[in-house]
Amino acid sequence: MAGDDLMRLIEAIDRLATGGFAMDAEWQAVHDICQRHEGEQPFDWGHALCHRIEGDDWNADYWYRRAGKARGTGAMADEWSAMRAELSAKA
User: Fold this and answer.
1) pLDDT digits (tens, 9 = 90+) for 4-25
2) Of 8, 22, 34, 63, which residue is most buried, by most CB within 10 angstroms?
3) What is the average per-residue pLDDT within 28-50?
4) CA dist list (Å): 23 to 28, 52, 63, 65
5) Whether the Cβ atoms of residue 58 and residue 65 lie closer than 8 Å to each other
6) What is the predicted pLDDT for the residue at 90?
């Protein structure tokens, strides 16, 4: 796993969270980082979050399964908080 890209992912999702998880350039940046690391658990989890934000539950669930995670049922910010703690420990 590319450690620098894991930090880029965390920083990009932080910016996405600051913007209220909007479908914008920050969303695209997160998606692009995740696609470059398809098959790596943290990035597949980020990919899942992207598609949850997008409202594409089927696609999100696919990526959650690949990441070995369950889709969050609460607020996006709560899911990101838990996700951020776990990813930061790996970075």
Assistant:
1) 999 999 999 999 999 999 999 9
2) 34
3) 97
4) 8, 11, 18, 23
5) no
6) 86
Lowest mean pLDDT among 21-25, 56-60, 87-91: 87-91
Long-range contacts of 48-56 (CB under 8 A, 24+ apart): 49/13, 49/76, 49/79, 49/80, 49/83, 52/76, 52/79, 53/16, 53/21, 53/23, 53/27, 54/23, 54/27
Instruction: Give the pair of three-digit tokens for residue 48.
Output: 């899942």
Rounded to whole angstroms, the Cα distance separating 81 from 64 reads 16
SS3 content of the chain, % helix, strand, coil (to 5): 75, 0, 25
In the structure encoding, which two tokens stand for residue 34, read together?
A: 């995740």
Q: Where do the structural domains in the chain lie, given as residue ranges? A: 3-90
Q: How many CB atoms lie within 10 A of CB 26?
A: 18
